[in-house]
Every structure is written in structure tokens, then in C-alpha cells.
Amino acid sequence: MSEVSGNAHEHLAQAAGDADPHEVLTAYRQSIDNIDAALIHMLAERFKITQAVGHYKAGHNLPPADPAREEKQIARLRSLASAAQLDPEFSEKFLRFVIDEVIHHHESIQAAQE
Ligand SMILES: O=C(O)C(=O)C[C@]1(C(=O)O)C=C[C@@H](O)C=C1
């Protein structure tokens, strides 16, 4: 399919009988694709920052994990999730998953320095 789109093309496609039979679903999916792209970009930025944190911690002999900080982050995100009608349990699991990956990265940075 060419990148040519817009009204003229759409009208011709419909007239030819090859219109998308599920254009509502297609529109939902376009939005999902945009949101997934935003999530990836946000995660990429988060991991760039945590990489800098990992180097800082390694350079200052700080432990990779900070459980007190994590407790505050989880409480805050659970509260934000509830207010946004998102499952707080899911939000905590998601943050835990991300933070655990960050801790592994921090450990690798420290190990490489030893
Ligand atoms: O804030 C820190 O100290 C970090 O290393 C970042 C981070 C995070 O990903 O948010 C990761 C590990 C720590 O246990 C707490 C938080």
C-alpha cells in the first residue's frame, strides 16, 4: 500500500469496495500504537537517567538498591494509579519490574568498576 492517503484515496478505495470493514477497531489500534510508542520513549528516557544514577552510585560507593526510596515511589504511584482508575496492584508490579531491572544495571556498573 502506498503512503498516499487522504480523502480522495479513501473515497476511491471505498468506491472500489475494499474499505476497512473494521475501521473503528483500526482507529483504536492507531491510538494504541501511539501510546505504546510514547511508553517506549518514556522508558528509554527513564533508563538513560537511571544509567547516570548507576554511575553516580558506583562512584560514591552507594548500594544499588534503596528500599526506603522504593517504598515511597510505590506508595506514590499506587495513589496516582487509584486516582487515574488504574489498578494499583498492576502499577506496583510494573514499577517493581522496572526498578528490579534498574538494580541489575546498577550492579553491572559496579561489578565492571571492581
Ligand atoms: O533512586 C535511586 O536510588 C535509583 O537507583 C533509582 C531507582 C529507580 O529506578 O527508581 C532504582 C533503584 C533504587 O532501589 C531506587 C530507585
Automatic annotation (TrEMBL):
Keywords: Isomerase
UniProt entry tagged with the keyword Zinc: no
GO terms, molecular function: chorismate mutase activity
Region (Disordered): 1-20
SUPFAM superfamilies, A to Z: Chorismate mutase II
GO BP terms, alphabetized: chorismate metabolic process; salicylic acid biosynthetic process
One of the Pfam families matching this protein, by short name: CM_2
Top-level taxon: Bacteria
Chorismate mutase domain ranges (all copies): 19-110
SMART domains: CM_2 (SM00830)
Ranges that cross the membrane: none
InterPro entries for the chain: Chorismate_II_sf (IPR036263), Chorismate_mutase-related (IPR051331), CM_bact (IPR010951), CM_dom_sf (IPR036979), CM_II_prokaryot (IPR002701)
Protein name (record): Chorismate mutase
Organism: Luteipulveratus mongoliensis
Lineage: Bacteria, Bacillati, Actinomycetota, Actinomycetes, Micrococcales
